[in-house]
Amino acid sequence: MAVPPPNAASARALRERRAQLDRLLSEELPRNRREIQEAKEFGDLSENFEYESARNRERQLLARLETLQREIREAAEFDFSLVEAGEEAAPGTRVELRFEDGTERVLNILGLWDFDEELCVISAHAPLAQLVIGRKAGDSVSVPDPDFDGEYLAAEIVSVGPLPPEVLAWAR
Fold first, then answer.
1. Residue 131 sits in which domain range?
2. Which long-range contacts (C-beta less than 8 Å, at least 24 apart) are formed by 45-52?
């Protein structure tokens, strides 16, 4: 069985990032170039709000292009079904938490950019995942209050296990 590298990305996440890059290259940048050209036709560029706005947008798009290209280049596609869940929470595992009030929360920890609220999927790089990675069943952790009020809640890790089939299917 395999251990995910730090830059592991599910096939789904990598596919979505590549789609973002394709949209940027095929739609957003060409549209922006047309906007710049149209704004130039309005005349004096020194006082041309449309031109300055389009140029600012171009700088944002080019920065996003550079970021996406770097992220895709540095990511390693990983099949999380190859992870054998051990005792410790890690990327490729399912973690069940129980809070002091008896409520429970499940975390399915995957790779870069993975998130799905309905399936309880979070990225291994998410702050919540970082709080539980390396911990075992029975360990106590303090996690941010889901109401985002800045408070932390005490929780116990109830179990650490393999990812369920529906999460593995989602990640593919």
1. 82-171
2. none
Reading the block at residue 161, the tokens are: 């296990």
pLDDT in tens, 86-109: 889 999 999 999 998 888 999 999
> Quick check: pTM over 0.90?
no
| Model confidence pLDDT, tens digit, residues 65-90 | 999 999 999 999 999 999 988 889 99
Alpha-carbon torsion 14, 19, 20, 26, what sign? positive
Query: Which DSSP category does 88 fall into?
Result: B
93 and 157 in one domain? yes
Does residue 91 contact residue 80 with C-beta atoms inside 8 Å? yes
What beta strand segments (E) does the chain contain? Answer: 8-9, 76-77, 93-99, 104-110, 121-123, 140-144, 152-162
Task: Give phi and psi for 101, each to the nearest 5.
Answer: -85, 5
Tell me, what CATH number does 159's domain have?
3.10.50.30
Residue 136's contacts (CB-CB under 8 Å, 6 or more residues apart) are 87, 88, 89, 157, 160
| Separation between Cα atoms, residue 148 and residue 141, nearest integer Å | 17
- CA dist., res. 46 & res. 28, Å (int): 25
- 8 Å CB contact between 65 and 21: yes
Tokens, residue 81: 């079904």
Assess contact for 9 and 76: CB atoms under 8 A: yes
